[in-house]
Amino acid sequence: MSPKHYVNKMPVLRFGWLVLVLSSFLMLGSCAPQKKTAGYRIGFSQCSMAGPWRKEMLAGMERELSFHPEVQLQVLDAHDDSQKQQEQIREFVQQGVDLLIVSPYESEPVTPAVEEAYRRGIPVILLDRRTASQQYTAYVGGNNVEVGQTAARYISRLLKQRGNILEILGTPGSSATSERHLGFAQGLALHPGLHVVAQVTGDWTVRTLKPELTKALQAHPEVTMIFSHNDGMGHGAYEVCQELGLTKRVRIIGVDAQAGPGEGLDLVQRGVLDASILYSPGGEEAIRTALKILRKAPFNKENILGTIVVDSTNVLTLLQQNEKMRTQQQDIERQQSLLHRLQQTYASQQVVLNWLLVTLLGAVALGAAAWRSARKNRQINHLLALQNAENDKINRQLVHQNEEILQQRNQLEVMAEQARTDTEAKLRFFTNFSHELRTPLTLILGPVEELLTSSPDLTAPQRQDLALVRRNTQRLLQLVNQLLDFRKIEVGKMAVRATESNLVAFVREIVDAFEKPAHLRGVDLRFQVAQPVLMAWFDGNILDKVFFNLLSNALKFTPEQGRITISLQPADEGRSVRVSVADTGHGISPQDQSHIFEWFYQGEQGAVAKGSGMGLALAQGLVRLHQGQLTFSSQPGQGSTFVVTLPRELPEELRSHSPTAPLQLSLDEPEPITSELGHHLEQEGPENTSETLVLVIEDNSEVNDFLTRKLRTDFRVQSASDGHSGFRMATELIPDLIVCDVMMPGLSGLEVVTQLRADWRTSHIPVVLLTARTAPEQQVEGVQAGADLYLTKPFNPTFLQESIRTLLSNRARQREHFRRELSIDTATVATTNPDQKFLADLTAIVEANLTRSNLSVEDIARSLGISRMQLYRKVKAVLGTGVTDFVQNLRLTKARELLLDESLTIAEVAYELGFSSPSYFSASFKAHYQLAPSEFRTLHIAPHY
């Protein structure tokens, strides 16, 4: 071989050998055992492993630890021996565990060992029972005092607050025994009719229970209830009652409510126990708290586990939940076993893969050497020339394509701008169009509702025609709402404002609204849920429309004697929730199924089922906004099932932390219609003699006239046609309630409410806002301004009148509250709101002039800077009494204080408080307190000896 060839091939051979060596090191490195990640060691000192409750505690720990293979748990059983448990705790300390969990047998003896571990820097978690010291890191367990109180409350309801009880105690000295007894005694103290006539110490087992319990029951035949500190002793008590023939007369309640044969849930289901108080072992929570402490994450020092009463009403639900948890745990264990096998398979296949990689790299290196040795310099130059020519051609093509792309981009920008302009114009058109429909819908639906509810002399055809008008008006309103929602979805103007709530309760309310129409049609409506509570993030205004459309369609297409089933259950391992609406209707034909979610599409369902073609398309659009899916399945002639799948969690940008207002079938505020009517709308017919005055502020003359006529049947009514005149009339007349529109020229309804609340003359007046602005932020704005009620148009006149009566009734209760405040010896009132500030100012003026016998209402009004009529109506509205009576009551309240001063005679007290004569003072005092001043003084001043 020539030196030239040797020189050319040497770099290639060296490169090949280098690749082989590096690949070998790569394979050996991948085959080397990986370093294990650092883990934790947790020591658990258990007072005893005997009994199913303690075993369930350990099982809970193991379930939680199955998710954390890096954690090692070492368990030591003290066998109910406090001395042995101290030694075990010190043994864990010597071993240097990262964290210590202790479930003490007795509080006092174990305390020194726990304090020693705590002082040496080892975190200590007390589980189920406490020590006699506060030197521990965290506590996990139930509230035994609350367990006793809960048992007492339940027994009180069961025995109707009268009966004799026998209490079975646990081990003396145990914190669980003392705390459960304490809570039980505290709960019974609230019910004098319940008595504990005997106590038996069961030591948590049955072996020492039966002889003593037999003697106690024979000595106290009046016992009707046994409270056992755990379910095991309760089971033993049942056997004793069987032997004595007392099972029908004596009821038994235990504590723990654990699952498994012969345990609390099983005993309640079989009727051995009447009830059991849930006391969770807390194993899972103890491990979770331990991991938070070890990982330096935030944790709670006190982790109190909740408790409930388990009886025949909910025992099946708890059994099903426990069975589901057991099944899920088995699934987790199977998945972990499969994962372990897969990891082993992966490790073995990785070795083969590395050898293949080395072989492939060697082949590539040898191929590169052969290709490089065969390449000729002339061929390389020729290829380079061809490549340069090709590059020039490609560059010219790229320049031309760039010019075309730039031109197309400019055209697209122009088209996009035009599309945005057209979209905004369309949205404005649909919004304005809906505004124009609001006022006529209000003036149609309101009178029709009134005629149907308050006109008994209507003939059947008239009532039928009115019902037809109401039905079609409501349908028109629904179509307008759907049309606007369609436009908002199409242009991306509809936002999701989700809050966290119970989805089961939300769907149940919608289903309840369909119960009556379903019953009238003979349709069986069923609502099935897998869990009573399913918390999720959702926007109620969006989902309300979705489920309303689905249920409306189901009811529309389900024949008489059919069935609609709504089911709700978690999906995707709890990350999602699935709501299905299934009917037994005619189903959807195959040719319609591919178009069922298209806007304005109407299938071949016959004239009776015709609609707008927007309901399902709107529902799908709203579900997608909610990041969910709407699917369906249908069999012609058998029915259809629509399924809504929603995530339980939503991104932060879709969440709202303010409560969502309920959906109202209304749009925005209509444009005001100009009117040539005067400032006040005079009504025909006799004036109402009611003392209640209502002020109507509405710029639309027809709506103003309608409201005035409807309210005049029950109240005296005055009206104003704009905000400025309405506020002026409110300050002059001081009405009892104001009904005000929101969108008005000049001064809006929100500004009227703000001014009313800022002026102490009108701050007390309830205000009802009427508007078509239904967005949640608009309703919140109205409430924040100070409105007491926010009603959207169209509104039901009967609902408005009942709402006014409710507000006036609430105002009357508030007046009674103020009267009670003023009736106490201290005559001053805290100025926490404008009404109380007014009362404080009024009280101060009267108290400063108490000695004036000629003090008049005009004098007080002049001091406050208002008219006599304004003062009278303000005091009447706030206190429900006249000004003169208020002054008299204040003087008599002050008299009680002065009469306790023995240095003053009764005559001096009378003149000091502005009474014209002592006799008039005595008569007034006796009429108010049913005691003469002298008798009052005798009763309240002790005699001197």
UniProtKB/TrEMBL annotation:
The modification 4-aspartylphosphate is found at residue 741. The keyword Kinase applies. It catalyses: ATP + protein L-histidine = ADP + protein N-phospho-L-histidine. Residues 384-422 form a coiled coil. The chain crosses the membrane at residues 352-371. Residues 840-939 form the HTH araC/xylS-type domain. Its EC number is 2.7.13.3. Pfam families: HATPase_c, HisKA, HTH_18, Peripla_BP_4, Response_reg. Residues 432-650 form the Histidine kinase domain. Residues 693-808 form the Response regulatory domain. GO terms for molecular function: ATP binding; DNA-binding transcription factor activity; phosphorelay sensor kinase activity; sequence-specific DNA binding. Keywords: ATP-binding, Coiled coil, DNA-binding, Kinase, Membrane, Nucleotide-binding, Phosphoprotein, Transcription, Transcription regulation, Transferase, Transmembrane, Transmembrane helix, Two-component regulatory system. It comes from the Bacteria. This is histidine kinase.
